[in-house]
Amino acid sequence: MQATETKHGWTQLADGYLSKTPLFQFILVSLIFPLWGTAASLNDILITQFKTVFQLNDAATAFVQSAFYGGYFLIAIPASLIIKKNSYKFAIMTGLIFYIIGCGLFFPASHLATYSMFLVAIFAIAIGLSFLETSCDTYSSMLGPKQHATMRLNFSQTLIPLGDIMGIVLGKYLIFGSVGNLSEKMSHMHGAARIAYGEQMLQLTLRPYKYILIVLLVMLIIFAITPMPRAKATKEIAGQQQEERPSLGETLKYLAHNKHYIKGVVTQFFYAGLQTTVWSFTIRLVLNLNHQITDSGASTFMIYSYVAWFVGKLVANTFMSRFSITKVLTWYSLLGTLALVVTFTVPNMIAVYAAILTSFFFGPEWPTIYAHTLDAVTEKKYTETAGAIIVMALIGGAVIPAIQGLVSDATGSMQFSFVVPTLCYALITGYFFFEHRFEKAHPNEVQEH
């Protein structure tokens, strides 16, 4: 295979992978991952805050996730085109800039005190995160030898729970603070007094984003001055290596006829919706099952969820280094489905602990589905757009929570509505089960075992 030497010490191969992993650059890219975890977990805090202040039903609160993941869906393909024409580094810096703009919009949003303005700020953040995920998920897998691509991505993704925990901690102490149960407190307020107190509570949403802005600015500066590998597939033309840039139409035609790729994208849609809806409504589930607990106390259960997610990733990484990846994920998905059955059927706090246990089984799902689906794209010149479409599957995080919100409003039971993510997890279990059967029947056609 043709290779291109660079002056920075790594060798780029013709398929875009590197001969070795540039450690500093890989760590720098990996540190981006917890940044979108922080933004995502803060949404779970905002949903609880907005429901009370703006007097929303469960379906309306889901618009927070609709704005968030809708941004991912709309921007992923444009982001991939920018990567194709420029570089992963340029796309990452673009994402950081939009993330900064979105955080900045929380300042006017908190003063205007309208739900729609907050949704605009969240959407702007999502634009930035769409650039970051579209570039970083694929880039992380490309920064080194091909045979370790899935393990590199799983390592980078392992840092996301740390960002999620940080987001919940910031929300717990800076937004919820010592307010107690906001819903209970505001239920006794009326008229101008209620509006004034609600606006005061919305001012608290600014606090975590101030700290996030500082981190983002530092990361932007570091990326600007650090040389980064291009990590793109090339072909030899007139004795020179040139990057392959197929048209969007050619790429979509290739991907549309790739059945394993399509199944992976659909599965990622259901997984994104599953994970988002469980985490979006866990705090609400706690408050519904325990009327004595405060908002801040309820948010602690999300910290437990993210710790479980982190541990689940570590355990899965160990199993996947020894056993078939698809077999490990089949068992993880099946056990996660059973945990959710307990969540929507047992009418006490055991249901909450079952939801936390589900987060343990979430651990390896997203990066494994992503890398496994990208492996189905054997023509690596289509990698950027293929990765972007997988990221677009995050639109499931906008659709599935809205469905669960509608089920909750229709049945009058927040707990029963967890039947929605249970069905999603059952579908994912089926995906990995049949992928494992295919792997056993066609071992030479599967890159990861």
From TrEMBL:
Q: Which domain of life is it from?
A: Bacteria
Which residue ranges does UniProt annotate as crossing the membrane? 21-42, 62-83, 90-107, 113-132, 153-176, 209-226, 269-287, 299-316, 328-346, 352-374, 386-407, 413-434
Q: Primary place of residence?
A: membrane
Q: Which InterPro entries does the entry link to?
A: Lfuc_symporter_FucP (IPR005275), MFS (IPR011701), MFS_trans_sf (IPR036259), MFS_TsgA-like (IPR050375)
Which one of the record's GO molecular function terms can you name? fucose:proton symporter activity
The places in or outside the cell where this protein is found are: Cell inner membrane
List the GO terms this entry assigns under cellular component, sorted alphabetically.
plasma membrane
Pfam families from the xrefs? MFS_1 (PF07690)
The way it spans or sits in the membrane comes to: Multi-pass membrane protein
Q: Which UniProt keywords apply?
A: Cell membrane, Membrane, Transmembrane, Transmembrane helix
Q: Does the keyword Ubl conjugation apply?
A: no
Question: Protein name, please?
Answer: Fucose permease
